[in-house]
Amino acid sequence: MTGAVASLVLAGAAFAYLGVLSIVLVIIDLRAHRLPNRVVLPGYAVALLLFAAASTLDGHPARLLRAVAGMAILFACFFAMRLASPASLGGGDVKLAGLLGLYFGWIGWGGLVIGTAAAFLIGGAQAIALILLRRADRRSRIAFGPAMLGGAWVAIAMAALPNVTSWPSGV
């Protein structure tokens, strides 16, 4: 197996892991309004390990650096939002944001923007629907993890589909 093929297999394994993690986290967050550390935090190690190996095999270490930068940027942004309004965003959301930023950075800067924007659009649409259906009001706690993960998969799908959008190729 060539380095490029092995790199694709390793990156594919990272995204498959995120798929499984997504299902688990959506179920937990919808039921308990929690994104447990014991589920989210191992995702960092798995993704970092697989992406580090993939970037080494394909000879593009800058891609790993961009992924780590995406992780730091999204974590910092969500951490700042949590500090500004602790009742609006949970600590699990902040940790999940860092993990998703790692994946967004791997696919490109456009993934970071689109995945984050899609998460807030999905979360807003979910909140409006729940209010219109009278299942929530302005003060209700609404799980944001599912919207974040939905936004992530929108960005991932857009990155995987040819000619949907032009993704920046450089770091």
Fold blueprint:
Layout: H1 3-32, H2 37-58, H3 61-84, H4 91-107, H5 109-132, H6 145-160
Helix pairs in contact: 1-2, 2-3, 2-4, 3-4, 4-5, 4-6, 5-6
Domains, number: 1
Number of strands: 0
Intertermini distance: 27 Å
Tell me the helix content: over 70%
> What is the approximate shape?
elongated
- State the low-pLDDT regions, or none: none
Number of helices: 6
Biggest sheet features: none
What structural category do the secondary elements indicate? mainly alpha
Averaged pLDDT, please?
93
Share in β-strands: under 5%
**N-to-C order of helices and strands:** HHHHHH
What would you report as the Rg, rounded to the nearest angstrom?
A: 16 Å
Structure description:
This protein is mostly helical and 171 residues long. The chain has one domain (3-160). 78% of the residues lie in helices and 0% in strands. It has helices at residues 3-32, 37-58, 61-84, 91-107, 109-132, 145-160. The protein is elongated and about 55 Å long. The mean pLDDT is 93.
